[in-house]
Hints:
The complex is a heterodimer of chains A (about 110) and B (about 120). Chain A is about 0% helix and about 45% strand. Chain A has no helices and 9 strands. Chain A has strands at about 10-15, 20-25, 35-40, 45-50, 55, 60-65, 70-75, 85-90, 105-110. A 5-stranded mixed β-sheet of chain A has the order 1-9-8-3-4, with no helix packed on it. Chain A starts with 8 loop residues before the first strand and ends with a strand. Chain B is mainly beta. Helices cover about 0% and strands about 50% of the residues of chain B. Chain B has strands at about 5, 10-15, 20-25, 30-35, 45-50, 55, 65, 75-80, 85-95, 105, 110-115. In chain B, strands 2, 4, 5, 6, 9, 10 and 11 form a 7-stranded mixed β-sheet that branches. Chain B has a 4-stranded antiparallel β-sheet with strand order 1-3-8-7, with no helix packed on it. The radius of gyration of chain B is 13 Å and the shape is globular. At the A-B interface, strand 4 of A face strand 4, strand 5, strand 9 and strand 10 of B.
Amino acid sequence: xxxxxxxxxxxxxxxEPVHLxxxxxxxxxxxxxxxxxxxxxxxxxxxxxxxxxxxxxxxASLAIAEDRKSSTxxxxxxxxxxxxxxxxxxxxxxxxxxxxxxxxxxTINP
Amino acid sequence: DGGITQSxxxxxxxxxxxxxxxxxxNLNHDAMYWYRQDPGQGLRLIYYxxxxxxxxxGDIAEGYSVSREKKESFPLTVTSAQKNPTAFYLxxxxxxxxxxxxxxxxxxGTRLTVL
Lengths: 110, 115
């Protein structure tokens, strides 16, 4: 996979927006950007993916920089249930596997 | 409801014993995967299967074996050759193989402890 860099941890308050950054400076033109999250003692859960344009779904928004070397996952109004490890992943082309780094551990304060 | 089931949630075994972890999906997905997760670490791919009767080694296949006799099932055997088998094991599936875009669905995981 193209390498991704995320902060080890972030902290935010309940009902405030959260911006989770990811750097992927070696991204190729055809690499999609995927985000997953993993709640404690559970399997990962797909959040969102995108290629070039910003994407929105019921869980989050994905903002992709114009040069695609970075992206930001946006949780518009964090809840305590959003406390999880968030992974930014660029799947290997044709290999059809996901490589999970250590992700960002998000803590939400009440 | 469609989804992936893994059983059991917790499993204890004595050192030197083989153990088989179950993974079943009713999503009609072609591709299935096994990952291992150690405390505080990301997931590492053990094996994956893009279609029935076919599977490939992932990054850490040594000491593990799989079979894919049915589309719905992808059991993982942790053999006595696996040096450090205690871990959290996750099974996943996706619509079809050879695709690098889109969602992988994960099961709830099996936490294996070898005593």
